[in-house]
Design goal:
Length: about 120
């Protein structure tokens, strides 16, 4: 005779919806939170986190925002406090402040496709 055992109670394996995974993944970097901090807060392992990130990237579940350029105003003199000396004073350059707080500095004559690529890299880093 074959014996079967039925386990009752709370399921040991948790299920996370795509929205929950995206929310958890987006918490990294907010107020300096690391992957370990976020994983600990949600009682998951870092391996889960990296696996979800890889799945998200592979399935292209991350919304790709279209890069938009906004009108800018060229200033005659650098703002008070100075800027980095990455460009000689006689060369024109642009500084673009991103939502994540990073600043992209580039030559004013940089081709648009390279500038868009630099912005995407800075946003995802």
């Amino acid at each position: 005779m074959m014996r079967q055992e039925i386990l009752t109670g709370i399921e040991r394996r948790r299920r996370w919806s795509t929205e929950e995974k995206s929310q958890i993944l987006s918490e990294v970097g907010v107020e300096g939170a690391t992957v370990s901090d976020v994983a600990r807060r949600h009682a998951i392992t870092r391996q889960h986190f990296y696996q979800w990130r890889r799945e998200t990237r592979d399935k292209r579940m991350v919304p790709v925002e279209e890069t938009r350029f906004l009108p800018v105003e060229l200033a005659a003199a650098p703002p008070q406090g100075g800027t980095s000396n990455a460009f000689p004073a006689n060369e024109r350059h642009v500084e673009i402040g991103l939502r994540n707080g990073r600043i992209v500095r580039a030559a004013a004559d940089l081709p648009e496709n390279l500038l868009m690529r630099a912005i995407r890299i800075a946003e995802s880093a």
